[in-house]
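<purpose> Linking amino acid order to shape
<body> The protein record starts here
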Amino acid sequence: MSELRRDPITGRTVIIAPERLRPMALPLETLRGGSCPFCEGREAIAGREILAWRTPDHPHNGGGWRVRVVPNREPALRVESHYAEPADALFQRLGGLGAHEVIIESPDHGANWSTMTAYDLRVVLWAWRERIRDLRRDVRLKSFLIVKNVGAAAGATLDHAHSQLVALPFVPQHLEDERAGARARHDDTGSCAFCAVVDEEVRGGSRLVSTDDNTIAFTPFASRVPFETWVMSRRHGAAFDEETDEGLSAVAERLSDTLRRLYVALAAPPHTVLLHTAPVGEADRSSYHWHLEIIPRLSAESGLAWDGGIHVNPVAPEDAARHLRDSRRP
């Protein structure tokens, strides 16, 4: 069984999940095409349906879907588990409480975000929102992560378009650090740090990939890796699951455009997409701003990034943004 463990020095929490080693033994080639459990017609193999967007004339757990959500077959965390008080003051075991779900983003095995329509992506974002809304009802869960890995170099073991949702009974350190910085800025200025960044990126333009009245895509000033790109709503909102249907449609348009530019500029790079959204509670409503981070995996992480937390980026974000602006959608 999985369990959460807290590092006695840093306080960092990790998930120890021995059962998740099993799928890593399967070569990626054996999981493609006809063997893929995520393809339409193989719903029984993928698992029981938690949520789906499908036409009314198709049955639950059957075909005819555009997006389908199922439990992860080897979950890192489980809602049936509990979040324990540590019995050992130094080596703290905290149980295996959480949730781990898979969002199957298309019935088409060959689909990817650069070829899917903005409407297709809007349906994916809808599934993300609805699952977080539902999981928030469990008062034990405090934060929600969505991760999409594309390509073996990014850690994907299946090449069928999908993303994973993990619900946690605590706030992970990376989000806690982001929240703390945002709160400090808000305390000093009375304004959202993310909104201030958006305003400055629009005003300056050198790191701007594209924008309109509702959304923005830009390469962050302190980009950690080449061509790191953020996609955001320009309307302030802390929690992704509070986004409106119209807001999801606008973000999907920007996301579609951005991914197509990245695929043209970098020849279909392996990459990770991360959703950052505020945890449960009211404390971050004024200071936090949900956003999507697109992280191309163009090279292995350096020792500085792994051990020192210091990323070395050989491509200036201004140059990356210029290249993406000049990239034409196929």
About this structure: The mean pLDDT is 89. The two ends are 46 Å apart (CA to CA).
